[in-house]
Amino acid sequence: MTNFSSTFLAKSTVKAPDKEHRRKINFNIGKYNDAVPFGKSQFADLTKVRELAKNVKWRAIEHLDQHLESFEKKITSRGAKVLWAKDAAEALLYIGNICKEKNCKQVVKSKSMVTEEIHLNHYLEGMGIESVETDLGEYIQQLDGETPYHIVTPAMHKNKEDVAKLFAEKLGTPRNLTPQELTLVARKTLREKYTEAEIGITGANFIIADIGGVAITENEGNARLSSAFPKTHIVVVGIEKMIPTLADLALFWPLLSAHGTGQKVTVYNSIITGPKQAGESDGPEEMFVILLDNGRTNLLKNPKTRESLYCIRCGACLNACPVYKNIGGHSYDTTYSGPIGSVITPHLKGMKEYKHLSIASSLCGNCTEVCPMKINIHEILLENRRVAVDEGFGTITERLAWKVWKLASMNRFMMNAGNGHLKNWVVNRTFKGWTAQRSDLDFSQKTFNELWKEGKRG
Length: 458
What we know:
- Helix content is 54%, strand content 10%.
- By secondary structure, the protein is of the alpha/beta class.
- The strands form 2 sheets. It has a 6-stranded parallel sheet, sandwiched between helices. A 4-stranded mixed sheet has the order 8-5-6-9.
- The model has no long low-confidence stretch (mean pLDDT 94).
């Protein structure tokens, strides 16, 4: 069995001192930071917009059962088929059966974190089906045999030289191609795939209850081509992507664009309400929507973690997080990295295996500050720590350490005893788990209590 905590520590220990990695990430996040103020400038009062968006998602999640049923009723009335998947295995089984029925040999796939979550490409490969990522960043990562590094920018850790070298090795192109030339190479290769594929698979940024629609926002047009060219379109979407009404898109699309890429709105915005209808010339002949739980109801049942389901996957918290910027996306070894990934992954994949992610945080609160949905991310990280302890996943050493700490903290004599050198020695030499990944603590020579008494005597 994989020890995910040890893997995380090993990967982050290697990546944190990597100056070249840090240079690339700081450069790319710096570009993001320059662009975001422009996107946010469209809002006269961003704080009120964020509060409104949070209230809309609150309504959506609190009445999720009703909205899901409404969505299903509306979209099935136009010929789409809705499949409910309790976990990744069930979702993959549905997709596999559809592929067998259509005698599918090739799939085109637009950028979708939820299909990364269920490891769809690996599953299709095992069936002998070629699954091609059509988003440029995802395509780069697929060529390199890597998972996405970032929720929004899959190849954020690569520069143009890295991509040129990769294309030369995998596609036989010259090593000195410019970014524009590299993009044209990918475009030419991928355009042929759209017409060859029997099935197109997409995710969804939002699903809309009142019209039974799937909303997709993008900058490359690949999701639109993936959903329109093949005869069969499969949408795989987490149940939390629900919004109540079509009118809510006017709020969420600009909010997502501003915080995700710094745009006022992305280039291509599509609302898909079913397969090709009678009299229509374009679109797939069949459409399937797979509504995925896969642990989301674990978040839903806890009132304190429920608001993490408001996330619109903009990636703002990753770009703001000092931990993420130092250790990188792959150190987390999860589909969803950074602060929001640390919040939701223990509930999606198991608290016992992933409780360490909630501890790998400075709790600075910058993630909460930048979140467009005003999710209290740093507070939920603390809630996850509490849940892990309550469920008995704390170590004996940890429990003993906290008992000693509590005993000393509640006893004034013990708090004042051994100031400076003795306290430093006890903590830094006894609690090896603390100092293994951190600098030694340096206690003051006198407590505040002692300084206060001296001040009064003076």
